[in-house]
Amino acid sequence: MPQSHITRHIEALIFSSVQSISVQEILLALNAAFEEEYIETQVFESLDLIKEKYSSDDFAIELVYLNKGYQFLTKKDYHETINQLQLHRSKKKLSQAAMETLAIIAYRQPITKLEIEQIRGVNSDYSVQRLLEKELISIDGKAETPGRPILYSTSSIFMDYFGLNNLNQLPQLKDIAKEENTVGENIE
C-alpha cells in the first residue's frame, strides 16, 4: 500500500481517538485492518507528513506528541476563542472540591481516600466518585496498610486534559507562590 494511503488512515485514527494514540496502537489497528505487517518506521514517516501538513497556517489544529501518543489539538492562537466556548459549557466543570481533590491526588499519588480527607479536612467521597466517573483518576491498587484501602492516581485522560507528557510538568509550589505571600522581611 502506498505511503500516502497509510498516512490518511493514520490521520483518521488520530482524529477519531478521544485521547492520545500510541504508535503501537496505530500499528495494531493498521495490521488488523489490512492484514499486512507494517513497521514503526512507516508510521513515523506518516506522522512526520501529517505534522508537516498541519503546521501550515491554513489549519487551526496541529499534531502533538502528548502522553506517549499523538493527538490533534488546537493551535495556541485559537485558545482564547475556545476558552470562551468552554466558559459557556461550565456545567461540565469540576467543582472547587473536586479540583482540590484532583490536585491532592496529582501531587501525592498514589494516595488513599483517608489521606485525601486528612489533607482537605472534609469528607471526599463525592469528589472522588465524580473524578472516577469523569475518568480523571483511576484506582491504582490497594495499600499495604490495615484494611487495604484503595489507592488513587491520575489517569491518562488527566494527562491529556491538562496537556502533560509526565507528572514532572505539574507546576511546582515555588513556581506559583507569590512573593507577597512571604512572612517577615525580605533581606538580600
Automatic annotation (TrEMBL):
Alphabetized UniProt keyword annotations: Cell cycle, Cell division, Chromosome partition, Cytoplasm
Task: Tell me the InterPro entries matching this sequence.
Answer: ScpB_csome_segregation, WH-like_DNA-bd_sf, WH_DNA-bd_sf
Pfam short name (any one): SMC_ScpB
Q: Which domain of life is it from?
A: Bacteria
Name one process (GO BP) from the record. Answer: cell division
PANTHER family attached here? Answer: SEGREGATION AND CONDENSATION PROTEIN B
Protein name, per record: SMC-Scp complex subunit ScpB
Give the source species: Pedobacter chinensis
